Amino acid sequence: MEKFDIHILGCGSALPTLKHHPTSQVLNIREKLFMIDCGEGTQQNFRHTHLKFSRLNHIFISHLHGDHCFGLIGLISTLNLLGRTNALYIYGPSGIKEFLMPQIDFFCPNIAFEVIIKSFSTKKKALIYEDRTLTVHAIPLRHRLPTMGFYFEERAPLPHIRRDMIDFLKIPIYAINGIKQGADWITEDGAFYPNERLVFPATPARKYAYLSDTCFVPENADLVKGATLLYHEATFLESEAKRAEETQHSTAKQAAEFAKLADVQQLLIGHYSGRYDSEDQHLSEAQTIFPNTLLAQEGLCISI
Prior knowledge:
Blueprint: E1 4-10, E2 24-29, E3 32-38, H1 42-48, E4 56-60, H2 66-69, H3 72-81, E5 88-93, H4 96-107, E6 115-120, E7 126-130, E8 134-140, E9 148-154, E10 160-161, H5 163-169, H6 173-180, E11 185-186, E12 192-193, E13 199-200, E14 207-211, E15 229-233, H7 241-247, H8 252-262, E16 267-270, H9 280-287, E17 293-295, E18 301-303
Parallel strand pairs: 3-4, 4-5, 5-6, 14-15, 15-16, 16-17
Antiparallel strand pairs: 1-2, 1-18, 2-3, 7-8, 8-9, 9-14, 10-13, 11-12
Helix pairs in contact: 3-4, 8-9
């Protein structure tokens, strides 16, 4: 199976602590790297993954709070110092160009590669990136300023053709792709073999949903229904539910309730408030409702 790895570079909230860095993740999907958010310290933690900067071509910024974007100019400067020439695509909400371009003009006036900034609406779910193996949709969240989550979805793979049937029926190589796409087979003596006898079902497409920062929005569950893995912010414990509501964040309990509504396979929680010395209570609170829950931690890599 091709790679679909999520690397956690930072999982803290607004205030960096000795334990957690501000938010950032890198997805390695078939050796293409996609970054989600870029708080301070991102490029240093990126190096710990031993992934290659040269394979990072797309960065998705959820919103323009500093803990999600203050690391951008440092990363861009480093890429320039490393001799990058390929274009870098940055996707974000309205205002990201006005935020970033003056910094690039000041700190990287002779930058050797093009930075292509694409802004998108935060009002509705929208396709913002696609290639032949992957689509990325932006999902509207509810926070103190326009904020989007992201939904990474593999395109449905083709079924696997049965090797024993290839040999038994002496199916030529030129016909294999057609059979994978649904064609039946008729032998030279007229025997008919329907497609379902020739293939194994395709491996289910993998889906990753990233929702940070957001208050509890139950109606968004349908937008990420059945995700293989859901990352949902869990800034507070339920004892601080009032504070969560005031700041438009979520509790660990609410993250778990959302995962249950969305019928996802696994939940990953993060974006912890700096007021907590340990996230054990976050995990316990979430697992009471959604047992298959993990804690995000810097350096964690999850393969799906």
